[in-house]
Amino acid sequence: MICPRCESKSVNLLTKAPKDDAWEVYICDTCTFSWRNTESEHITNPEKYNPDFKLRPETFTQLDQIPPIPNLKGK
Ligand SMILES: [Zn+2]
Fold first, then answer.
1. How many Å lie between the centroid of ligand 1 and the Cα of residue 32?
2. How far, in Å, from the CA of 27 to the mean position of ligand 1?
3. What is the C-alpha to C-alpha distance for residues 20 and 58, in angstroms, rounded to an integer?
4. What is the C-alpha separation between 11 and 18, in angstroms, rounded?
């Protein structure tokens, strides 16, 4: 399985429906995106996931921290 958002292959089963295996939730170890297998293809399929919301793992170290953490105030 491939993460729809960052296309990492490091994806694990997070949880399953308590009854009848009605759905499964997966989580990406690389970008922490999680999705349920019963969601539509624009969420579950990497090729149909909105390109504006895709992430590239090689840029993670360049991303801003939100919210930014200010420097400690001096006494
Ligand atoms: Zn991912």
1. 6
2. 8
3. 39
4. 21
